[in-house]
Amino acid sequence: MSGKSPDMAWLAAHGFGVVGVEISPIACEAFFAEHHIAADRAAAGPFVRWQGGGVTILQGDFFDLGGKYAAALDRGGLVALPCQDRYRYAQHLRSLLEPGGVLLLVTIEYDPARRSGPPFPVFPDEVRQLFPGAVERSRHPLGRARWTAVGGADAVVWVMRVRRG
Questions:
Q1: How confident is the model at residue 164 (pLDDT cuts 50, 70, 90)?
Q2: Which domain holds residue 122?
Q3: Are residues 82 and 103 in the same domain?
Q4: Measured between alpha carbons, how far apart are the two ends of the chain, in Å?
Q5: I want to staple 46 with a disulfide (CB 3.0 to 4.6 A). Which of 64, 74, 84, 119 is the partner?
Q6: Is residue 1 included in any domain, yes or no?
Q7: Do residues 38 and 107 share a domain?
Q8: pLDDT at 165
Q9: Is 65 within 8 Å of 96 (Cβ atoms)?
Q10: Strand partners, 51
Q11: Do residues 20 and 73 both lie within one domain?
């Protein structure tokens, strides 16, 4: 669900070890091509591991991902899913964070009667149900024409820390 997000390159350039998960080989290839990075590819369990420039993208199904991570950034994953799939996604994402781990989540809010997703709107009550303890940190209107045309939309940034055992 990482797609070819430029966030991965930015995080790697600032010293973070980055692991993205993406099902599409086209998006994996495009990420490395757009950043002029030669990627090594190898089988890694249920994934194909693309690696280079401090970024690892695991090509495969997010629900096959295991391990524990200190932090996660979701800027497009949750909002890409219809309502019926969000609980399973959130539960799996939370399970991947180690105790004390942090999730930075970006959602979008707009009037669903004026537009159908994806991205789908995710409102505060649902975020708090899916990610107990999540705190809204910022909110700002999206100024792109596609959002203005449907009456506006807000990007909302949430932070959640996994409670220690």
A1: low
A2: 68-161
A3: yes
A4: 28
A5: 64
A6: no
A7: no
A8: 57
A9: yes
A10: 40, 56
A11: no
Structure tokens at 62: 């997010």
Total domain count, the chain:
2
Between CA 142 and CA 119 the distance in angstroms is 13
Distance CA 135, CA 131 (A): 9
Q: pLDDT tens for residues 18-40?
A: 999 999 999 999 999 999 999 99
Give me the helices (H) in 55-138, please. Answer: 83-96, 124-130
Predicted model pTM:
0.91
Instruction: Identify whether the C-beta of residue 103 lies closer than 8 Å to the C-beta of residue 93.
Output: yes
102 and 153 share one domain:
yes
How many CA atoms, within 13 angstroms, populate the side-chain half-sphere of residue 2? Answer: 28
For the stretch 53-92, pLDDT in tens is 999 999 999 999 999 999 999 999 999 999 999 999 999 9
Which of 63, 78, 104 is where one domain is finished?
Answer: 63
Mean of all residue pLDDT scores within the chain: 95
Could you tell me if 66 and 124 are in contact, meaning their C-beta atoms sit under 8 angstroms apart?
Answer: no
Taking the CA atoms of 39, 29, 142 and 73 in sequence, report the sign of the dihedral they define: negative
